[in-house]
Design goal:
This protein has 441 residues and is of the alpha/beta class. The protein has an eight-stranded mixed β-sheet, sandwiched between helices. Strands 12-11-13-14-15 form a five-stranded parallel β-sheet. A two-stranded antiparallel ribbon has the order 5-6. The protein is elongated and about 75 Å long. The protein starts with a strand and ends in a 12-residue tail after the last strand. Helices cover 38% and strands 17% of the residues. Helix 4 runs parallel beside helix 5, helix 8 packs across helix 9 and helix 11 packs across helix 12. Bound molecules: ligand SAJ. Ligand SAJ binds next to helix 8.
Length: 441
């Protein structure tokens, strides 16, 4: 199938890179967003998201005339839906007294509705938004069929989610293997033809529901594995073991790869996607549910660790290092670090937080300071929450020169192996018990 013109609905973290990459490959692209500020920003050659290389790509796509930005869709050979699928903030589901989060699919359904008047025989529509299983078949196919055209017979319909890592989106979009699920084999083939325009990784065809499930399985697998690492950190603490040492020893087994514990799981993917399984099949997902609970409660475990290090937190001054959901990104969405700050404050502490990738971050109820010096200057304790390289470089001498704090709480194992005690510090690590008396360190 040949694609001269495509329409991409949703110009966020995925839609904008996708639209610009198609444009860079010579396709006429209409990028659509309902947020008029985004439309205006892009038309002025600016971008609204931070991703290495994206600005140059978008600029080139717009100035070559291959990418046009509009607020509503128009006729095209193919339509790609890349809009957000968040949770409902105020509504949860209930299964045997346990509450679970519910996906808000309104952006997907309204994007589908917006396409209906422009849908023509022979078109392809691809849903890219992460969605509960069966969304393509049960939720959006019936919307498109309001056009009078039959999905799979008159137009092609497929599901294909991205798998890119924030910070490396442009490279991974092209190089990663991609799964295309069609509601018919012909729909999968049409999707294959579309992404072949720029994907260099393998493109694998399957059915739509399998493709939806694959995306959720990938991120759920990671969530469950981080949950077990977090649970190991609690067990190690309980038994008087250093979890970081224990994990590195266990990982010498040829078939074991345990991930790293930390202050919790954040971002808009891994902490979200497992709920799409729980919501659609609560009776079948006790492990996935429990893993979400473990990871969501990890910030409370960090609070507990800080309280053990400092006693009552009432009126204590604490410097928190790192607010992003993971190292080397400026993304604070669903960040466990932000939650830790709130918990410390609820326990009476006075917190100054420093986020090196977003020093001017404004977060309700949080005092984010612009420099490391500001955070440290009057602190009694330093709590390290994100393993930025910048923080890893801090030495006992450096901290002493900037701060009266002598209590350090390291939740990411970045400062291990330094002579903190010799420098007069009390050094506490997540997953390392005070009870540990012997060993190499
Ligand atoms: N984390 C740990 N321990 C670890 C690894 C991660 O606590 O050993 C934490 C991180 O600090 C962070 C969270 O987990 O808070 C998630 O980080 P991540 O790097 O695992 O994942 P994301 O959310 O940045 O990106 C993921 C990727 N999925 C997988 O690795 C399976 C990416 O490929 C997906 O495209 C993306 O989710 C998505 O959009 O779904």
């Amino acid at each position: 199938m040949k694609f001269n013109k495509i329409c991409v609905l949703g110009l966020g973290y995925i839609g904008l890179p996708t639209a610009s990459t198609f444009a860079a490959n010579g396709v006429q692209v209409v990028g659509v967003d309902i947020d008029l500020r985004i439309v205006e920003t892009l038309r002025h050659g600016e971008i609204h998201i931070h991703e290495p290389g994206l600005r140059t790509l978008v600029e080139a796509a717009v100035s070559s005339g291959h990418l046009r930005v509009e607020s509503s869709p128009e006729e095209a050979d193919a339509f790609i839906i890349a809009v957000p699928t968040p949770f409902y903030q105020d509504t949860t589901g209930d299964y045997n007294g346990e509450s679970y989060k519910i996906a808000d699919m309104r952006a997907v359904t309204s994007a589908a509705e917006a396409i209906v008047p422009h849908l023509r025989k022979g078109n392809l529509v691809v849903l890219e938004s992460t969605s509960p299983p069966r969304t393509t078949v049960d939720l959006i196919a019936p919307i498109f069929e309001k056009s009078g055209l039959k999905a799979g017979a008159d137009f092609f319909l497929a599901y294909s989610s991205e798998r890119v890592l924030p910070g490396q989106i442009l490279r991974e979009l092209i190089d990663n293997a991609r799964v295309i699920g069609g509601i018919t084999p012909e729909s999968a083939q049409a999707g294959y033809d579309l992404y072949s325009i720029f994907v260099r990784g393998e493109i694998v065809k399957t059915d739509a529901t399998t493709a939806e499930m694959v995306k959720l399985m990938e991120n759920t697998y990671r969530d469950v594995n981080i949950a077990i690492a977090n649970e190991f950190s609690r067990l190690a603490d309980h038994f008087g073991v250093d979890v970081w040492e224990a994990i590195s020893l266990a990982n010498r087994h040829p078939r074991v790869t345990i991930l790293s514990p930390g202050p919790g799981v954040g971002g808009h993917c891994i902490s979200v996607d497992p709920w799409f399984f729980v919501e659609t099949a609560p009776a079948l997902t006790p492990l996935i549910y429990a893993s979400r609970q473990v990871n969501d409660s990890q910030p409370h475990y960090v609070l507990d660790l800080v309280q053990r290090a400092m006693g009552s937190l009432k009126g204590k001054k604490i410097a928190v290092l790192g607010l992003a959901y993971k190292p080397d990104v400026d993304d604070l969405r669903e960040s466990p670090a932000v939650e830790v700050v709130h918990l410390l404050q609820d326990a009476g502490a006075m917190v100054k937080a420093f986020e090196p990738y977003k020093p001017s971050a404004r977060l309700p109820g949080i005092q984010a300071v612009p420099t490391l010096e500001d955070a440290l200057s009057d602190a009694e304790a330093v709590v390290l929450l994100v393993s930025f390289i910048f923080f890893g470089a801090l030495t006992p001498e450096k901290i002493k020169s900037l701060s009266p704090a002598r209590i350090l709480v390291d939740t990411v194992n970045v400062w291990a192996g330094r002579d903190w005690a010799g420098g007069g510090f009390q050094y506490h690590r997540l997953g390392v018990s005070e009870k540990r008396v012997s060993g190499p360190r």
